[in-house]
Amino acid sequence: MDERLKKEWESCVKCGLCRSVCPVFKELRQEPFVARGHISLLSEFIKGNFDFDSEKSKDYLYKCLLCTTCVEACPNDSGTDTIVEIARRRIVELHGLPLYKKVMAKILLNRNLMDLSALSANLLSVFLFNKNTNTSRQSNSLKIKLPFVDKDRLLPPLAPKTFYHKYESYGKNAKISIFPGCLINYTYVKIGDAFINILHKLNISYLIEKKASCCGAPIYFSGNFDDAKILAKRNIDLFYNQDIDYLVVLEPTCASMMKFDYPKLFMYFDDEEYIKKATEFAEKIIDPVKYLYDNTDIKDRLKDTGLTVTYHDPCHLKRTQKVKNEPRDLIKHAAKFKEMKEADRCCGNGGTFSIDYRDLSLKIASRKINNILNSKAQVLVTGCSACIMQLSEALHIAGHDEIKTLHTLELIDKSLGG
């Protein structure tokens, strides 16, 4: 892995293209917060001239969305996302994790604890949240200040019934298995509802493996590789021998984690057995819209919903999974489509980035909001529930609750008569 890292940082020719595309750099305008700066830091670390032992160095590496915009723009294919991930691992080795990330790891490692935490939060929701009377914006503000979360932040309500509790495997000879991801399992169950509705309308059988674990992305991107490895092994062991053609992963971040980061994760540990398993496992992972587009006659079944919509490209869908044209083609059969400017610019969520650096996160989102408004669309469609959460809040803050947010699957379901 050291040789691979060396190859990554030596491939950077300091051209500065990353500066022109990085959403964080565009706000902060400081070299250590852009890919070229990250590579310089890591090269000095490898040479023994620098270590990530200060608060400022931590800030440099965690104020990165891991949106991979720089990777896409780099003419030499420098893996700057890999560099940031390795540096974060070093920071965790030196400093440990912040308290809330330690708690998060403990919860994500235990599905029973996750379910219990969600149930408890649901029962206490009347005391925790102000009721939002705006039905177009399914988020609520906090009544009280919670640790690590701003009181005025809008959060989606937890679903009364999780995806895994709501659905069972369906039909015979199923060749797909569904992995919803934590956000859809616990909060945006309606997105999972839409996919299930679509599959039933197409008479497609499916498996739902209720013993699945969190994909591990929030833990891995925090630099906690040891716990991420535990979750990755569990999921690979669970799905590896299933007789399926596809594991349909509803969340782009989960899909990218499982498809691209699992093999990389085991490379860090030189685990040859699981490098092989993770690489083979990755071949079956697919986005739900990509699955429908490539394997069904869905396009011919869609009817015009009468909506005018624009589309936001989730980073982990367009850049890592290379799914760009398929959702647009389906949207054009279901609604009047208006392409927004900079449709693939990161929304600023970045998982725990939006918790740690909320003001910066919302500044990044504000540019996206302007582009949405300029498109004159009634509805913002995207393929990621985390992007929906971020952009719903940003639209609300900007005073534009009239613009609805939908997942691509919800629009497709609506177009089919859902």
From TrEMBL:
<dbReference type="GO" id="GO:0019154">
    <property type="term" value="F:glycolate dehydrogenase activity"/>
</dbReference>
<dbReference type="Pfam" id="PF02754">
    <property type="entry name" value="CCG"/>
</dbReference>
<dbReference type="InterPro" id="IPR009051">
    <property type="entry name" value="Helical_ferredxn"/>
</dbReference>
<feature type="domain" description="4Fe-4S ferredoxin-type">
    <location>
        <begin position="3"/>
        <end position="33"/>
    </location>
</feature>
<dbReference type="InterPro" id="IPR012257">
    <property type="entry name" value="Glc_ox_4Fe-4S"/>
</dbReference>
<dbReference type="InterPro" id="IPR017900">
    <property type="entry name" value="4Fe4S_Fe_S_CS"/>
</dbReference>
<protein>
    <recommendedName>
        <fullName>Glycolate oxidase iron-sulfur subunit</fullName>
        <ecNumber>1.1.99.14</ecNumber>
    </recommendedName>
</protein>
<keyword id="KW-0408">Iron</keyword>
<dbReference type="Pfam" id="PF13183">
    <property type="entry name" value="Fer4_8"/>
</dbReference>
<keyword id="KW-0004">4Fe-4S</keyword>
<dbReference type="InterPro" id="IPR017896">
    <property type="entry name" value="4Fe4S_Fe-S-bd"/>
</dbReference>
<dbReference type="InterPro" id="IPR004017">
    <property type="entry name" value="Cys_rich_dom"/>
</dbReference>
<comment type="function">
    <text>Component of a complex that catalyzes the oxidation of glycolate to glyoxylate.</text>
</comment>
<keyword id="KW-0677">Repeat</keyword>
<dbReference type="GO" id="GO:0046872">
    <property type="term" value="F:metal ion binding"/>
</dbReference>
<dbReference type="GO" id="GO:0051539">
    <property type="term" value="F:4 iron, 4 sulfur cluster binding"/>
</dbReference>
<keyword id="KW-0813">Transport</keyword>
<keyword id="KW-0411">Iron-sulfur</keyword>
<keyword id="KW-0249">Electron transport</keyword>
<keyword id="KW-0479">Metal-binding</keyword>
